[in-house]
Amino acid sequence: MSIRKLLSGLALVVALSVSAPAFAHEDHDNQAAARAQAAAPAGAVPEGGVMAMPGMTMDMDHGAMTADEGPKPMPQRLYRWLGAMHPAAVHFPIALFLVAALLEIAALTLRRPVLTQGTRVIIALAAISAVAAVALGWFAMGLPGKDDVTHLYHRWLGTSIAALGLLSWWAKEHWVRRPGRGRELIYIGLLTVTAAAVMVNGLLGGMLTHGMRHLMF
Fold first, then answer.
1. What's the CA gap between 171 and 162, in Å, rounded?
2. Sign of dihedral through CA atoms 16, 22, 25, 30?
3. Which of 1, 108, 160, 188 is most buried, taking the most CB atoms under 10 A from its CB?
4. Rounded to an integer, what distance in angstroms lies between the CA atom of residue 15 and that of residue 45?
5. CB atoms within 10 A of CB 208
6. What is the chain's pLDDT, residue by residue, as a tens digit (217 residues)?
7. 211: alpha, beta or left, given left = phi > 0 and alpha = psi -120 to 50?
8. Is the dihedral of CA 67, 71, 76, 77 positive or negative?
């Protein structure tokens, strides 16, 4: 009789130990749902009465996806992918134009023309990469028409930089092949304007990427 009572007691303990966590988990879920519903603003609960829990992902109900959220056509995907390359591509012309300008300034200031021997290649690479970066920027921003002021200035100043870069490259080659004071001044002027435009447009790009106050001290 004592063994039967002992086994009955053990069975009761096992049953309680198994069922208690389940009830506790269910009670925890109910409390979490109540807190989430109380914290949600009015009208946030869908018509079906099902509210997304904190750990749920937005794409769990694949049947509820709209046509706009479905797979994109290949040309549109390629268009968006090329536009996503713009922030990385702009670093090349920015660095190259500024390095070329600094070398030209150092050569004039220190009277050491040897410092400008590499600028011919640097200007060529800067001009080519600027055209590529501008093309990718147009993919990123789309056609003009809905730009705000910052986007508008960034778009057209960047396009102007590509044109100025090509002109600077032409002026550099023209001056190297036929040296002259006038050709030198044209090249230096174009490169100076290009470098200044690059710095201004870099600030505009930073505002678009990080916000208007990203350089506040």
1. 14
2. negative
3. 188
4. 38
5. 16
6. 454 554 454 444 444 443 434 444 444 445 545 555 555 454 444 444 444 444 444 433 433 333 445 677 888 888 889 889 999 999 999 999 999 999 999 998 888 888 888 899 999 999 999 999 999 999 988 888 888 898 899 999 999 999 999 999 999 999 999 989 999 999 999 999 999 999 999 999 988 888 888 888 8
7. left
8. positive
As a whole number of angstroms, the distance between CA 211 and CA 217 comes to 14
Question: How much is the pTM?
Answer: 0.64
Q: At what angle do helices 119-141 and 74-84 cross, to 10 degrees?
A: 130
Give the per-residue pLDDT at 64: 39
Decide: 171 and 186 in contact? Cβ < 8 Å.
yes
How far is residue 162's CA from residue 132's CA, in Å, rounded to a whole number?
9
Percent helix, strand, coil in the chain, to 5, is 75, 0, 25
Would you put residue 142 in left (φ > 0), alpha (ψ -120 to 50) or beta? left
C-alpha Rg value of the chain to the nearest Å: 32
Task: For residue 69, give the DSSP letter.
Answer: G
CB of 97 closer than 8 Å to CB of 126: yes
The dihedral built from the CA positions of residue 135, 129, 91 and 185, taken in this order, carries a sign that is negative
How far, in Å, CA of 195 to CA of 119, rounded? Answer: 14
